Amino acid sequence: xxxxxxxxxxxxxxxxxxxxxxxxxxxxxxxxxxxxxxxxxxxxxxxxxxxxxxxxxxxxxxxxxxxxxxxxxxxxxxxxxxxxxxxxxxxxxxxxxxxx
Amino acid sequence: xxxxxxxxxxxxxxxxxxxxxxxxxxxxxxxxxxxxxxxxxxxxxxxxxxxxxxxxxxxxxxxxxxxxxxxxxxxxxxxxxxxxxxxxxxxxxxxxxxxxxxxxxxxxxxxxxxxxxxxxxxxxxxxxxxxxxxxxxxxxxxxxxxxxxxxxxxxxxxxxxxxxxxxxxxxxxxxxxxxxxxxxxxxxxxxxxxxxxxxxxxxxxxxxxxxxxxxxxxxxxxxxxxxxxxxxxxxxxxxxxxxxxxxxxxxxxxxxxxxxxxxxxxxxxxxxxxxxxxxxxxxxxxxxxxxxxxxxxxxxxxxxxxxxxxxxxxxxxxxxxxxxxxxxxxxxxxxxxxxxxxxxxx
Amino acid sequence: xxxxxxxxxxxxxxxxxxxxxxxxxxxxxxxxxxxxxxxxxxxxxxxxxxxxxxxxxxxxxxxxxxxxxxxxxxxxxxxxxxxxxxxxxxxxxxxxxxxxxxxxxxxxxxxxxxxxxxxxxxxxxxxxxxxxxxxxxxxxxxxxxxxxxxxxxxxxxxxxxxxxxxxxxxxxxxxxxx
Lengths: 100, 346, 178
Description:
- The structure holds three protein chains of three kinds.
- Chain A contains three helices and no strands.
- Chain A is mainly α.
- Chain A has one domain: Orthogonal Bundle (Helix Hairpins).
- Chain B is mostly helical.
- In chain B, 66% of the residues lie in helices and 3% in strands.
- Chain B has a two-stranded antiparallel ribbon with strand order 1-2.
- In chain B, β1 and β2 (196-201) form a beta hairpin.
- By secondary structure, chain C is mostly helical.
- Among the domains of chain C are: 1-80, Four Helix Bundle (Hemerythrin (Met), subunit A) (Up-down Bundle); 142-178, no CATH class.
- In chain C, α1 (2-22) packs antiparallel against α2 (26-46) and α2 runs antiparallel to α3.
- The longest helix of chain C has 27 residues, at 85-111.
- The interface between B and C is medium-sized, with 26 and 24 residues.
């Protein structure tokens, strides 16, 4: 059996990569992908704990997280497409309508 | 060496390797003769003879074709995304090959590479990965016809995957397992209704609530394999050759191989889910013969349909998938669930 | 055998996730993300979550990432141009935050500070496989959240369609269509 620490360390690394992606990149789509990475890091931790605890609750939560992620992607991509139609860009630092 | 042979993990891996080797070899042969069969059948449907020059009855034609393809020029269009252009044909073939690892061609454990308990989900996962090869092939060739063909085919595959997935649910409700060999097992024995035994095999297709899913699955599989009447992605009249316009030589051959392998895979899944898999009269060792017979009959049906039906218009295709097949399959899930629940509790 | 497979998948996962963040071409990023989701599915299989592993491929690799690719191709995005002092500063901050987070996470994992509580002695019934066990829990204890997520999906679907369709033009004609 794989020690739970390994999975957790992997999950932490994955989450960090996601955070760095959100902070470093300016393409809204890549930022969105980094958010997906973070969600997956959380999923991995859920599954690892479910395995360690001999319980299925963690896996059920992953199931719900996936559902929410699918909904989020559909809406988020629709927003990005709309923004692109208005401003001809997907770079988050050029989308500054609120600055006036 | 002897200790290694005793090792259980090693034995399992060795046998799996042997089976994979056999399947790969046989499959390549079957695919090349399937193409020959397609050309021959198409010829006879159109009142001509088809290939008949190379060898007796043209039987050596596939070898000549492969030789021709091998010696053609590898061409990469200017402005293409080189890496993705090279990877796309591989992506078109590998999902089909992976799916073969779970298809039971006879009674397990002998005639199946690995009998996992989520076999059907693996098939659905791999068919959803099949979209990438075509989309990326179309996108990376830097050609607008190829791009349009790629987008069309991926939109079509995604749309029809939903109805396909939903039409498998009544089968699962009946068998109570996701394992493909478990599903085949549940179709064995005699057909019984209300205590009386009918002279029918107990296959899925003979249960009334599985008739509609069978036809929905069949229609969706035409769309999934991009074959007529759903071959919009390669509509010659509008899109040159669709997503593989810019491909030549062995890369084009890989796309072709992928298409025919997908056809074999999806026919095997239909046989497994609805036509009783390896079940048939005679001893169990004949199982693989029955499986192959059913498989080839279905493949013939696929070819027959391709050369007799005209192509749909794109909006008709999308409308049919979303407005007819999807609601029908959802309704069938509900009906089958209610019926099975009632029967179990009555 | 299993630990080696885990390490292999973990290495692939980290490498591809890094490529998602580092590569300048959005299409390549998306493809690396597909690869990393697939290797994550492999890790789920090793953690005995077959159902979740397969659903991971179907949902993430098969549906979500295809949607991403569609949008990238539809918007016809090329390589990102990232130059200038502002971006360099942001990049520095980003990597620094990342390093700090990794440090904290490493400390927590090393000190065992995640205290998962008592371990259940009896594993749940695995008769009929992981998928059936999940189904049994999902349709009994988690039935209400399950129904709620279906409503959430419906809302998201309607929202996405409404947003992408655009407003009808002034002369009453239908707006831009997809």
